[in-house]
Amino acid sequence: MADNLPTEFDVIIIGTGLPESILAAACSRSGQRVLHVDSRSYYGGNWASFSFSGLLSWLKEYQQNNDIGEESTVAWQDLIHETEEAITLRKKDETIQHTEAFCYASQDVEDDIEEIGALQKNPSSGVSSTFTEVLDSACLPEESQSSYFNSDEMPAKHTQKSAGEISLEIADVDESVEKEKYCGDKTCIHTVSDKDGVKDESTSTVEDDANQPNRNRITYSKIVKEGRRFNIDLVSKLLYSQGSLIDLLIKSDVSRYVEFKNVTRILAFREGKVEQVPCSRADVFNSKELTMVEKRILMKFLTFCLEYEQHPDEYQAFRQCSFSEYLKTKKLTPNLQHFVLHSIAMTSESSCTTIDGLNATKNFLQCLGRFGNTPFLFPLYGQGEIPQCFCRMCAVFGGIYCLRHKVQCFVVDKESGRCKAIIDHFGQRINAKYFIVEDGYLSEETCLNVQYKQISRAVLITDKSILKTDSDQQTSILIVPPAEPGACAVRVTELCSSTMTCMKDTYLVHLTCSSSKTAREDLESVVEKLFTPYADIEINKEELTKPRLLWALYFNMRDSSGISRSSYNGLPSNVYVCSGPDCGLGNEHAVKQAETLFQEIFPSEEFCPPPPNPEDIIFDGDDKQPEVPGTNNTVIAKLQSSEESKNLESPEKHLQN
Amino acid sequence: MSMEDYDFLFKIVLIGNAGVGKTCLVRRFTQGLFPPGQGATIGVDFMIKTVEINGEKVKLQIWDTAGQERFRSITQSYYRSANALILTYDITCEESFRCLPEWLREIEQYASNKVITVLVGNKIDLAERREVSQQRAEEFSEAQDMYYLETSAKESDNVEKLFLDLACRLISEARQNTLVNNVSSPLPGEGKSISYLTCCNFN
Ligand SMILES: Cc1cc2nc3c(=O)[nH]c(=O)nc-3n(C[C@H](O)[C@H](O)[C@H](O)COP(=O)(O)OP(=O)(O)OC[C@H]3O[C@@H](n4cnc5c(N)ncnc54)[C@H](O)[C@@H]3O)c2cc1C
Ligand SMILES: Nc1nc2c(ncn2[C@@H]2O[C@H](COP(=O)(O)OP(=O)(O)O)[C@@H](O)[C@H]2O)c(=O)[nH]1
Ligand SMILES: [Mg+2]
């Protein structure tokens, strides 16, 4: 597109993560001219969600991160005047580390052939072909190799290399040429049009029945073929139904761009078993695990928590104790204590005081029933939708969007110390009054004194739920307490296909904890407790009860939350920094940061007020009576207000009558 | 206000290169006017028009790109849950036609597979400057299994027809129960999908 960017803005925002996107919407909404850019080809930065092939391309990017810089960028040095200096930005992203991908699902050659046949129906499509290469360099665990290497075309030397687990980072460059050749005919697999989906499904089912009559088999090529069905979040979060993001979505009307599903279950992991935590009144009464006495004790305790402030005598004496100590005094049986501590209050054993614990429990209970019987919501198509929705709001109010747009440096006026402009990769100078930049874009020099935390993440594709029930469409959250005191609890979120984040008959499982080591070292033990690798199945019959791992990815992500502005070197006063995703379950940090920065920049402006209702803008078209053959049309334009409310479940209070 | 003031609600989404006339098509249809000058209307998110077809009230929610196509930066979420897509090019601009396969790829990636796609060649009032022949466009749309129509937002040619035909098609698709909404509709007993959170729903 031969369209030039304007060169005068009020606010330039670099990075499309959640806080930047909220700020973009807020600024644009208050009448500022906003330019919002991202160096990547997708929205969201580390808040993004990817289709399966998209995720593989993302992985590959980190694998190849080294050879960035060949691109022709116009030198900025000549564009800086004498009275100015430049603060350069980072050339390559360094917020993701230790990526390791594993494929456990079988790589059936026959499947591939079948799909290549199907491909001919739709020769025009051509999504990127990177996935096979990535997979090849990501190593395959030994168990699944037998079927994979049935293919004669597979270079033999790969076999030696893939013993054990080799991370993507150290993929052999020499092999890639050979790999390309091998992939030549496989490349097309995932380009099979969705329009053929139904048909393909039935053919493969037939084939499956022949091969493996007992279990519904998901092969790697099925995952690839249905790759579009996946929306895999880099950061795993949920929305508290009384949380600040929900409030902001509602207030700003950005909620009209996004739909949610309830998290349907809160789970606990105790003594090697996954159990459902009864949290609503109905849950408690229907629970088969709890005895009558336990039910009564739990109900009594939860009811107390809802109004604990009114009964100070019940907890005053325990103010100085930890919440877990306090729970022991409440006649709760060990499993009830576990439920309350880990799954309801979601606090850690050691660090949480009685008051914090009671408060967390109360909050949990108050969130219940706003939208369903757990306090959490999950956005359809993944968390990555949410920043995009704020970006749309910004664009609707005139914000200009430019992905794949790299910024080389800030131009700072020496005298005032204020930033005047950016210079982009075309060498274009774009002026603005305020600049907002995501932490990951700042150079090493700027961040020299910053101490970053890390988040350990795992993404798993599995074939069954970790707790099977009548319905296979459950969305669950599970907190796995640390194995030893002092370590971090691991948060597990299991998404079903109706959240639109994974293909039918699979589950997408996210594990998150704050890092002490690499993601795999931090999370693998929990993965092993809950899942079994695909190929173990034939050998180990009792393992059949566990869901099988089809594919797994581990990575570490930088956690730049909670860094004070003064830790960054030499930031001009009108440059503001947003952090990447934090480790917390909710989005409160991002929302708070966006609001705080907005109020700092524009103290007198309202933060994200509701926009005019689009339905109010509509003109009345009654004067027009178009004639369309075959139909009897009257064109009626309407002024309506949100009748959509009927889509909502009515809020119920489960614990209070 | 009544709860049920329409029989059908469809989300229609416009895409295509910047400058082909998407915004003009929407405004011509919903407001009956051809906006003079360039400036995009600030703050208009989507336009609503309720039409009556064979006695049934059909509410069309028509979404424009908010200009994000200008630098090829449309959000994926824009495509979600669209019932129909209007892919527009400018018959006087070869480039806008050549970009169509790229748009189709984006549709395939992000839109529901049950979405109805209509190809629209706009600005037929500028016939003397035509760069893309009708035949070429017809062949292309046939190969891609799309409906094809040529319009002029300026002269109001075929604009009503475009949207009303689309509404008819959407209704018959809905009748056959193959609409997008079913894909995400929850199975019994599960959390419903929650949309349009509005203030009035709580307290
Ligand atoms: C149902 C529910 C709703 C929640 N809603 C929010 C929310 O809207 N916003 C938010 O920031 N956190 C909320 N939390 C708390 C949030 O889960 C934890 O802060 C988060 O899990 C971090 O845990 P942690 O182990 O790091 O810290 P923890 O040791 O668990 O707590 C860290 C701090 O968070 C505070 N906190 C604990 N629970 C809550 C709570 N319910 N609401 C507010 N503060 C709390 C504590 O007082 C403490 O100072 C909620 C928790 C639950 C169970
Ligand atoms: N002659 C003519 N010009 C049109 C027509 N539709 C749009 N335009 C002009 O094309 C330009 C771009 O239109 P716009 O609706 O903003 O395009 P969009 O970027 O696709 O939304 C404007 O200058 C319009 O006046 C049409 O049917 N005929
Ligand atoms: Mg437009």
Automatic annotation (TrEMBL), chain A:
Coiled coil: none annotated. The keyword Transport does not apply. It comes from Callithrix jacchus (White-tufted-ear marmoset). Its main location: cytoplasm. The keyword ATP-binding does not apply. Keywords: Cytoplasm, GTPase activation, Transferase. This is Rab proteins geranylgeranyltransferase component A. One of its GO terms (molecular function) is transferase activity. Residues 609-634 are annotated as: Disordered.
